[in-house]
Amino acid sequence: MQKILVVEDDFDIQEILLNFLKEAGYDVTVANDGVEALSVFTDNQFDLILLDIMLPKIDGFGVCELIRKQSQIPIIMLTALSGEEQQIRGLDLQVDDYITKPFSMPVLVRKIAAVLRRSNHQKDDKHCTVSYQNLVLDLDSYTAVIDGNAYELTQREFEVLRELLTHQGRVLTRQNLLNKLWKYDFYGDERVVDTHIKNLRKKLGIDFIRTIRGVGYKIDKEN
């Protein structure tokens, strides 16, 4: 049974999430604030975290930042803040998905299933790598290796880079990537793709992802 950590200080929402996710077949643990969330996360193993932003003691952004220093566990942020600035901040902290309150429980459950399905599919794949110049993507560990140095990527970062590398010479539009990787109707700003590209460039120090202005992104074919 897959384990989900729900970090939410609203007891009514806690109860709804707890009951609905248990009915969906998940083992659910609840934390009431940021400090408790970090403690519970350290002492247990989870498959995914549902993380509210507006938390006592340490807010969701702070919790996410601390967790990302030690783990690439999938994180879906829950928030009542619908502003672009908050969403971009969450994406900069490498959250895997984002949902704004009030939200549909069936939609949330499907998002959770999609993230976990990608994670499980990766674990079941045969060992395989994709290479480009001095970069090697390890499909078993979701890591990127450059000149022998390994870098951990979030699932979404890895998949964006993998799509570009497996379609060398082709321009992938933002909508291409949203349709292929998000796998559900996306109603937010297409610039979430730009944020992931920015994170990849910064994290890996690479310059071969080309921006095709007004269209999308491209990696040229190796000679």
Written overview of the protein:
- Helix 2 (34-43) runs parallel beside helix 3 and helix 6 (155-165) packs across helix 8.
- This protein starts with a strand and ends in a 5-residue tail after the last strand.
- It has 8 helices and 12 strands.
- The mean pLDDT is 86.
- It is of the alpha/beta class.
Task: Describe the protein's topology.
Elements: E1 3-7, H1 11-23, E2 27-31, H2 34-43, E3 48-52, H3 60-68, E4 75-79, H4 84-92, E5 97-100, H5 105-124, E6 129-132, E7 135-138, E8 143-146, E9 149-152, H6 155-165, E10 172-173, H7 174-182, H8 192-204, E11 210-212, E12 216-218
Helix pairs in contact: 2-3, 6-8
| CA-CA gap between termini | 47 Å
When the domains are counted, the total is 2
Mean pLDDT: 86
CATH fold name of the largest domain, please? Rossmann fold
Q: Tell me the helix content.
A: 40-55%
Order of helices and strands: EHEHEHEHEHEEEEHEHHEE
CATH superfamily of the largest domain: Response regulator
Rounded Rg? 18 Å
- The tally of strands reads 12
List its traits.
four-stranded antiparallel β-sheet, 8 helices, globular, 42% helix, 2 domains, Rossmann fold, alpha/beta, five-stranded parallel β-sheet
Could you write a compact summary of the structure shown?
This protein is an alpha/beta fold and 223 residues long.
